[in-house]
Specification:
608 residues, alpha/beta, Alpha-Beta Plaits, eight-stranded mixed beta sheet, six-stranded parallel beta sheet, 44% helix, rod-shaped, transmembrane helix, CHASE2
């Protein structure tokens, strides 16, 4: 019995399927928590944000107004940014007069009073008292929320001056007037997530945007992703423009632009507080440049005020989807599974994109990895099984059919249902002369051993020249050239094989003589023409063979070898295809049993 690689008996195909499926489900859980998977998901999310903004722009009802402190403002004023108390006070009063709904300030108020500093201007004012007065007047009718800034190590909050903190605290407990401006950043340092308690140094889930929204009357427990699909790119209002409108007495224009709006003041300078966002929000900057941090707060405010934070699919739902894709481990047809897998992949990506239009984010990477692993491992396992089966089949049939036929069987091109075909071939018959007499004086075991030794040499030569051994008939051999392996000149291959068979026989005879055994003589007959090639027999027992007049004629020609005295005899059809035609001797027309006479030609090797 032929042994092939196999698993222990208790590993049944059904058990292997179940174990494989369980392993894929475990890997799906790993994928769902793998940092590299989250990185890929984030890249896909960014692409979907850009795609949605480009082709499905989202209009919103509530949009905060951004007022920017830029380089032009700093050029116009005399004081450094840390001493702009007077201008901040003016801004607060103007927003209050314009009827702003809430004023958010993405900047930290001073930690000290600066009482010792005196302005040299004619209208010199006390920096501290001016800002304090502005704040007191503003909070009477307009809520004010300012940023909480942490130290570099994020160990503690940098307290603003006590007077400012006290004034801001007078606004009640409906919102936190001093709130963290800290954002959660992903591994690529981009801001995508709602800045919840997990990324706040004090573990408080009340950030700048949430408290501005609360001051505007929108309060709830927020979570999810910042919705970068909402609204157009920002164009900020320069702070100096606001101050100039006031100087020009254009109160109505201020009310039109800021009345009833959530106003957010922050730095819009080219090199201050820049952050990396999934999409470009600054209309005044190139698309790929970092954006001012105030725009991240503004986009988060958009998401909160319009109650449209992007909600991410739960781990349970993603695991269920991964489980469905793990089913690609099952099934036998690789081609069908490939088609279904491609369709399922495209469907998942399309579903993820469509879900985003409903403010829902379906990260696909872990699901697709599970499906890809399931499909890939299943295909690899089936390929291994196919390889093992081919090896088993090759070993089972090795020595029973020619290598060319074996290859066709393994590749599935030959079976009992295959149709026979008429093909041009050259048929070779060979026979040992005087073999019957030799058998009379030898033991049967010795005869069989000699035949096996002889056929081993001759079979290799036939196969080396692209021939197919049809059968062994006692001491005779039948082979054909041109099927199933197609040859350019079957007759030439058959003649070359005949020539090498005689050369090999000479070597074998030298060995036999050295052993004290009688030498062998053979005759070879060749004829070329069409023959029907295919499987002959029943479903239980069949063989790959050649049938037709070409075969019968070749057998009759081989029978002439003894009478004409040549070891190789061929027909005119064979001669016409040979490069060595001049080396063959015309033997005239010879009668063949069962058919009319034909011209034959003889060849024998030159004597050394």
């Amino acid at each position: 019995m032929i042994k092939t690689p196999s698993l222990p008996q208790f590993f049944t195909p059904r058990l292997l399927q179940v174990l494989g499926l369980l392993m894929l489900l475990v890997l799906a859980i790993v994928f769902l928590h793998l940092p590299a998977v989250h990185v890929v998901d984030n890249k896909i999310l960014d692409l979907q944000f850009k795609f949605s903004r480009e082709y499905f722009p989202q209009q919103i009802k509530i949009d905060p107004v951004v007022v920017g402190i830029d380089e032009a403002f700093l050029d116009e004023v005399d004081e450094p940014l840390s001493l702009n108390h007077i201008h901040l006070a003016k801004f607060l009063k103007l927003m209050n007069q314009a009827g702003a709904k809430v004023i958010g300030m993405d900047l930290s108020l001073p930690e000290k009073r600066f009482d010792t500093l005196v302005s040299t201007r004619k209208d010199a004012q006390d920096f501290h008292k001016t800002l304090l007065t502005g704040m007191l007047e503003t909070i009477q009718t307009t809520p004010v929320v300012v940023a909480k800034v942490w130290d570099l190590k994020h160990a503690h909050f940098r307290n603003i001056q006590l007077d400012y903190a006290a004034v801001l605290g007078m606004q009640g407990d409906q919102f936190q007037a001093v709130a963290s401006a800290e954002f959660c950043r992903d591994s690529d340092q981009r801001i995508r997530r709602f800045p919840g308690a997990d990324c706040q140094p004090d573990r408080m889930a009340r950030g700048l945007a949430t408290e501005i929204a609360a001051a505007a009357g929108v309060r709830q427990d927020w979570s999810g992703l910042i919705n970068y699909r909402l609204g157009a790119r920002y164009n900020y209002v320069p702070l100096q423009e606001v101050l100039k409108l006031a100087q020009q007495g254009k109160v109505a224009e201020l009310q039109q632009r800021f009345g009833g709006k959530v106003v957010l003041l922050g730095a819009t300078m080219d090199a201050t507080d820049l952050v990396d966002l999934p999409v470009s929000l600054a209309a005044w900057l190139p698309v790929n440049d970092p954006n001012p941090g105030v725009l991240a707060h503004a986009q988060l405010l958009r998401s909160i005020l319009n109650q449209r934070l992007l909600q991410q699919a739960s781990m349970v739902s993603l695991f269920v989807l991964s489980g469905l894709f793990a089913l690609f481990w099952l099934g036998r047809s690789i081609r069908i599974k490939m088609m279904v897998f491609v369709m399922a992949t495209l469907g998942l990506l399309l579903a993820s994109t469509i879900a985003m239009q409903y403010d829902f984010w379906l990260p696909p990477t872990a699901v697709l990895l599970t499906g890809l692993l399931a499909f890939g491992s299943s295909s690899a396992w089936q390929a291994w099984q196919h390889y093992v089966d081919k090896q088993r089949l090759s070993k089972a049939f090795s020595g029973r059919v020619s290598p060319a036929v074996m290859q066709e069987i393994v590749e599935g091109r030959i079976d009992q249902t295959s149709q026979s075909r008429r093909l041009p071939v050259c048929v070779l018959f060979s026979d040992i002369r005087g073999f019957t007499t030799l058998c009379e004086h030898a033991q049967a075991e010795d005869v069989v051993s000699l035949l096996n030794r002889y056929f081993a040499v001759m079979s290799k030569i036939v196969h080396d020249h692209g021939g197919t051994i049809d059968k062994f008939i006692g001491d005779g051999l039948m082979a054909f050239f041109g099927a199933p392996q197609k040859l350019d000149n079957p007759a030439q291959n058959a003649f070359n094989a005949s020539r090498d068979m005689l050369a090999a026989l000479s070597i074998l005879n030298e060995e036999l003589q050295a052993e004290g055994k009688a030498s062998l003589q053979i005759g070879i007959g060749l004829h070329a023409g069409d023959a029907v090639i295919g499987q002959v027999g029943s479903a239980e027992r069949h063989e790959y063979t050649a049938i037709g007049d070409t075969v019968n004629t070749a057998a009759r020609i081989e029978g002439l070898c003894k009478d004409v005295g040549y070891p190789v005899v061929c027909s005119a059809t064979v001669l016409a295809s040979l490069a060595e035609a001049d080396a063959l001797i015309a033997l005239g027309d010879k009668n063949l049993k069962g058919r009319s006479a034909i011209a034959v030609y003889g060849w024998q090797p030159l004597l050394a």
